[in-house]
Structure formats: C-alpha cells, structure tokens
Structure to design on (194 residues):
C-alpha cells in the first residue's frame, strides 16, 4: 500500500518513505512488489496534484462496486483469486458510475440490489495486466439487498465463492483481503482502524 499524504502519517511505524520528487510508478512498482514491507508513504505538498501526475503516467481504469447489506444485517463478500473482496467492475463507455456499481454487484453475485445509498469512498490499486501497469480507481457505494437470493459467483470473472458475513464475523475477511478493501470497510464503519 502506498499512502499519499500532505503530512506524515500518525502511525509512522512500518511505513517506508518514498521520495515524491523521483517517484515514477512504472519503475517503483517492481521494486515495491519485491519488498517484504507492504507499507509505503509519499509525503508531498499537494496530494491531489501528485495523484493527478501519477494517473497521467499509467493506464487508468475506472470501476465501481458496492458494500451490500441484506435485511439481516449481513454484508456481501466475494472470493476471487485467493482473497476476499467486494464486488466491483469496470465502468462501461457512457455508463453512469452508480449504474455500473449496481450492475457489477448483480452480475458478480447473482443478487438484486434493492437500494443504492451514499458513496462511501474512492480507492486506488495498481496491478499488471499483460505486462502493462494499470491504476484502477474504484468508486464504492453502500447498497441494500432485500429478499432471498441463491448467491451465484460469476466464475468467468475468477469469483469462486459469494457469502454473507455478519459484522461481528468479518475476521476471515480482515485476515485475507486487500488494503483497498480494508479502506472501504474502515470508511463505512464495518471495522475499526488500528
């Protein structure tokens, strides 16, 4: 995880400082991927401007997804590529962000979204796609699901399991998910920040 901030993080322990002047995501990605430490920090004067520069330097893909809650107070998670995740996917050309979020949740999980709530946050993560570095910006929304559905993982998207978890039982998620998903869960109050 790379934290981009205008002030040093309160919890500096564990963060390796990266130079904002020499930062090149294409170069640093390989270096970071080979490190045991997974916490990095870039302290810069203007975080928005810095992020804007990073976006220009790599391929940007916009996606949308949801944190879905059912009538019993359970939250919907998917299991993809060996990690617990939240349903999300690419926004199609001329598609509204909210519509994409609902469509992706319904396609990936086999549920029907009955209510779209507030926007939770945006997250960014980086990955290689056929040797090309991609920055994925994901818009996250609160969603509701009413009724009973036979959960159906979208296998062709690498999803092998879809499950409901009570807030009190998200330990397996916390133990095996991505930093960006943890950001969504913390922002929405599902888990407390350390």
């Amino acid at each position: 995880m790379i934290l981009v901030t205008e002030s040093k993080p309160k919890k500096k322990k564990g963060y390796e400082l990266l130079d904002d002047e020499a930062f090149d995501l294409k170069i640093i990605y390989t270096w970071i991927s080979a490190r045991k430490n997974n916490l990095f920090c870039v302290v810069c004067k203007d975080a928005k401007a810095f992020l804007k520069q990073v976006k220009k330097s790599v391929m940007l893909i916009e996606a949308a997804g949801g944190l879905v809650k059912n009538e019993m107070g359970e939250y919907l998670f998917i299991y993809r590529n060996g990690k617990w995740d939240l349903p999300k996917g690419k926004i199609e050309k001329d598609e509204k962000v909210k519509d994409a979020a609902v469509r992706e949740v319904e396609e990936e999980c086999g549920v029907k979204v009955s209510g779209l709530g507030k926007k939770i946050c945006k997250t960014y993560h980086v990955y290689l796609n056929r040797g090309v570095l991609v920055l994925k910006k994901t818009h996250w929304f609160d969603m509701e699901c009413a009724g009973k559905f036979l959960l159906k993982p979208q296998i062709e998207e690498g999803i092998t399991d879809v499950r409901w978890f009570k807030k009190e039982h998200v330990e397996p998620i916390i133990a095996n998910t991505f930093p960006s998903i943890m950001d969504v869960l913390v922002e929405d109050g599902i888990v407390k920040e350390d």
Helices lie at 25-33, 47-57, 97-109, 171-175, 179-187. Residues 97-109 form the longest helix (13 residues). Residues 167 and 189 are 10 Å apart (CA to CA).
